[in-house]
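Quick illustration, no need to memorize.
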Amino acid sequence: MRILLIKMSSMGDVFHTFPALSDAQKNLPGLVVDWVVEKGFAEIPQWHPLVDKVYPIELRKWRKTPFSKQARLEMKTFFETINQTQYDLIIDAQGLYKSLWVGRKVNAPISGLDFKSAREPLSSLFYKNKYSVAKDQHAILRLRQLFAQALDYPLAENAPIVYGLNTQAWSKPEVLIENVGQDDYWVFLHGTTWETKYWPEEHWIELLHKTNASGVKVILPWGNQEEHDRALRIASVSKNNQVWVPDAMLSLNTVAKMLKNAQAVVSVDTGLSHVAAALEVPMVVLYRVTDPKLVGADGAKVTRLESPCAPGYIKEFKDSIQEQYSLQGLDAKSVWQCLENQLELSYES
C-alpha cells in the first residue's frame, strides 16, 4: 500500500507527524508513505524510514503570484510529477483549505478530519473519508488517532510516543569536532519568535556558569543576527573556551546532528525544541507565555516548565509586574534541577 501524506508546515507540525508514521509502520508491514511538505522542511521527512518520496512544495511562494507564468508552470510540473505515482489513499493531516487544494489535484481518494475536527471545517466536505478526532488533545495524539482510523488499525490508550527516526548512524558533524572535540556538551536554544518568549540573558548566564562548573561545554547556535549577538553576549562571561558560538549559521541537518549527540538541551518555545524531542535528547523546555498542552514539544525525555502566564499567549506585557510574573518557576535553579533528574533517568536507561 502506498499513501500520500499532506503535512506541509510548520516545523513543529512536521515533527508531530512522526509518531503517527511509527504507529502505521508497526501495524501495516509493506506500507510506503510519500510526503508533500514545504520546501524549507524537505530534508526532515527523509529522517523517518517509512518515507520514500518527498515532494517539496513552494505553496507560500506560489500564493504571492498565483497567476504568473512561472508559478503556473511550477504548479503544473509539481502535480504532474506527483501523479506519475499511483496512490491508494491521500491523508490530509492539516485539515486546511490549502492542503485540500493540494490533495484535490492528485488522483486518489482523500481522508481527513471531519467537520467538527478540522481547523477549517469546510475542507472536510470534500474528503471521501472523514474521521472524528477531539480537538482538546495534543497534536501528536490527534495525528495518531487520524492515521489509525484512516488506515484501520488499533491505537492503544496511552501508547508511548515513538518518533522512530533513522538517526542511529548520525555522528558529530566535523565542524563540531573541530570546535568542541569529543567532550560532553549541552545545547542552549535561546532564539525564538516573540520577545515575550525569551528567557532573560542573566538566566542563561547563570545556567551557563553552573554547566561550565560541572565540566560540561555549551553550544549556542543561532539563526539570525540578533540571535548571534545574544549568543556572543552570553558566551562572553565564560572562561577557558567552554562555550562555542558558531561563526556561521548552521544548516538544519548539522543542527539536528549536533542535538542528537548532545548530553542535554535547554530550550525556549521554538521549532528546534521539537527536533530535540524527536531525537530523544534529555531536554528542558521553558514555556513563558505559551501553553504546551496542545502543540508543545513532547516525548520520552522532555521536561516542560510553565510559568503562570503560559496559557495566555502574551505577545506584549501590559506592565513590569506581568513581565516578572511570567518568569515564575523558570529560574535557573529549577532548570538545573530538572536537568539533573533527566540525566539520572537517561543514565539509568
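The radius of gyration is 21 Å.
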